[in-house]
UniProtKB/TrEMBL annotation:
Function, as annotated: Essential for recycling GMP and indirectly, cGMP.
Annotated ranges, domain Guanylate kinase-like: 6-185
Compartment annotation: Cytoplasm
Catalytic activity from the UniProt record: GMP + ATP = GDP + ADP
Main location group: cytoplasm
Signal peptide: none
Source organism phylogeny: Bacteria, Bacillati, Bacillota, Bacilli, Bacillales
Highest taxon, organism lineage: Bacteria
Recorded GO CC terms: cytosol
GO molecular function: ATP binding; GMP kinase activity
Enzyme Commission identifier(s): 2.7.4.8
UniProt protein name: Guanylate kinase
Keyword list, A-Z: ATP-binding, Cytoplasm, Kinase, Nucleotide-binding, Transferase
NCBIfam families, per the entry: guanyl_kin (TIGR03263)
């Protein structure tokens, strides 16, 4: 029997909704079956961040070279920096039958929807706009101006929610992780059943 290709899982949503927090919690669980795709970025490493673990930190010129060489599955400019997904790692891991998990902003997710529509697209939504604002303020990593810009961007990003296969509310981190895990299990079941049906059809059963 041919090996089933892994699932490309894309988690996206507005800045401050908790994508990074939920992703870290998912990957801290010992039974997580997904491979995390480490992104490239031109933003400077924050204190405690490690090159090759949190991101691959690149200079702008090096990043632009990767774009030219088509080494990125998608990339976006976000608040003055580039962010992108290395394409080789994603393809090799999927080909090996392993699921790949991307945590990216919404422009990048739209590009992937064009290139890999068979991905599983999950939008992480805040319980409310005011809660989103409190999370951005509470994180304390941005100035008031930047927070205002991100809230404005969030309004537009929230409008994109209906393009996603699933919307998961991040009310509580553990609940959001449980919902994501359930969605992935359900999607695997669906794909296996569709594949079985397809093979039966080919055999004329
Ligand atoms: N398009 C795209 N977005 C990414 C990628 N990696 C991270 N991001 C997103 O870029 C945004 C900024 O990330 P970062 O600077 O780490 O800040 P933070 O996630 O808000 O703490 C977040 O929305 C990330 O999800 C990537 O490879 N591609
Ligand atoms: N479910 C939640 N409830 C309360 N606070 C949360 C929750 N998820 C994340 N946060 C907090 O919200 C802030 C933004 O989370 P973060 O993961 O950095 O967001 P993003 O990666 O989407 O920009 C952080 O201070 C984080 O601790």
């Amino acid at each position: 029997m041919r090996k089933e290709r892994g699932l490309l899982i894309v988690l996206s949503g507005p800045s401050g909704v908790g994508k990074g927090t939920v992703r870290k919690e998912l990957f801290s669980q010992p039974d997580t079956n997904y491979e995390y795709s480490i992104s490239m970025t031109t933003r400077k490493a924050r204190e405690g961040e490690v090159d090759g673990v949190d991101y691959f930190f690149k200079e702008k010129e090096a990043f632009e070279q990767l774009i030219e060489q088509e080494k990125l599955l998608e990339y976006a400019q976000y608040v003055g920096n580039y962010y992108g997904t290395p394409i080789d790692y994603v393809n090799e891991t999927l080909d090996a039958g392993r699921d790949v998990f991307l945590e990216i902003e919404v422009q990048g997710a739209s590009q992937i929807r064009e290139k890999a529509p068979d991905g599983l697209f999950i939008f992480l939504a805040p319980p409310s706009l005011s809660e989103l604002q409190s999370r951005l303020v509470g994180r304390g990593t941005e100035t008031e101006d930047v927070i205002a810009t991100r809230i404005e961007a969030a309004n537009k990003e929230l409008e994109m929610m209906n393009l996603y296969d699933y919307v998961v509310e991040n009310d509580e981190v553990q609940l959001a992780c449980d919902r994501i895990n359930s969605i992935v299990v359900a999607e695997h079941c669906r794909r296996e059943r569709v594949e079985k049906q397809y093979l039966a059809m080919l055999k004329g059963e």
